[in-house]
Request: fold
Amino acid sequence: MSTALSDFGLIGLAVMGQNLVLNVESRGFRVSVYNRTPAVTEDFVAAHPGKRLHGAATLEGFVQSLARPRKIQIMVKAGAAVDAVITQLLPLLERDDIVIDGGNSLYTDTERRDAELAAHGLRFIGAGVSGGEEGARKGPSIMPGGPASTWDVMRPIFESIAAQVDGEPCVMHIGPGGAGHYVKMIHNGIEYGDMQLICEAYSIFRAAGMSAAEIAEVFLRWNDGDLQSYLIEITGRALQQIDAETGQPVVDLILDKAGQKGTGQWTLMNAAENAVVISTINAAVEARVLSSQKSERVVASRLLQGPEPALLGAYRPQLVKQVHDALYASKIISYTQGLALMRTMSEKKGWALDLGGIASIWRGGCIIRARFLGRITEAYRADQGLQNLMLAPFFNEVLARSQQGWREVVALAVTQGLPVPAFSASLAYYDSYRSERLPANLLQAQRDFFGAHTYERIDRPAGQWFHTAWPEVID
Ligand code: 2AM
Reply:
């Protein structure tokens, strides 16, 4: 065992932790590792001979093996395990040491931990890490939040292990406190939206009678164009996979019951708290919920009436282009909403989030990596104060030219009884946002009628409030 101090330490040697360690080590850093169950540490170090790894049997030994300020990343399950590890670490650390939580923690937990460590003279980084196991090994997108002073210390390690796109590392200091984990949460909400939108496109093609192989071909073709993204690519590849036993496409054999771990729901709750519309992401989360109620749906499918969505095949020649446009436009709406939520929270919390920069570090490493993120970065670079992404010239133009197909797809699905909750929620957002007048005049009348809530008038200055003596209703 060498006596050299390590540049970086990692606690929690599950697959993500192991892969991150191997990534950091491969960039020339010496890494100390610790796991609650010591045999895991021993096995891991033994499995990688000749690497700059130090396996510590005790937490004390682990801490002592690190150069100061210590940089310790925790990769354990989000929640109580993170607190348990921090509690054990606290008495062993010294001023200015840095503790990084690289799990999917709720940003409010990160804010609490940030304050707790700061009170001990320590620095805490809540870092969103996206890209799954493969990303952790080869280059994830990293969203670190915490004291600004940590960035210079962590930068060499973070930048060398992150994914690179056009020579730029997919990492930046996101902001103070819980900002990093917050942005990771929004990333996951957007991921829910992207996935559901792709599933709706697939659902339309299925109803039009296309086979998994035919649909795969469409997605893989789209992957060469505007829609280029990791999720489109893996969708195409997944649709091509044949089950060895039955010879059928694997996707056709998978039960239509989606799981979720909760980051989508966190995003919805945060949007509700801040009165920001994220109807596309909302539809995506709710689509998973409804899918999970499989047995109820089976019963209802025999009881509730509706058209059989089978005639779509008749529209097939134009359908592929129309669905492409519906997907592209809806995706823009989904990102518009996610960005609007980040903007609102940034203002509320004083985080000063760089939305263009965030889109830029999502271009590589993470699940939502996509060509079109570069367009979002350009839009914010051109106009830092951009109120709504749809108003940026590039996106405005895409929405204008996509909307014919988008409307036809939604209309067709609705008349055929085929659910497209995220396509239609996106379109409703677009049409609502671009409406100079909405029927909220009547809503205000209703509120004033039953609750004397008063209203403003179009023929009087804003801020003047009126009440009408509405007729009494006799039941
Ligand atoms: P283990 O091997 O001892 O179970 C994913 O579960 C990783 O988090 C594993 O490395 C696991 O260690 C670790 N982990 C889970 N809960 C923990 C806790 N309360 N304290 C320390 N490590 C924990």
Observations:
- The chain has three domains: 8-177, 184-433, 439-475.
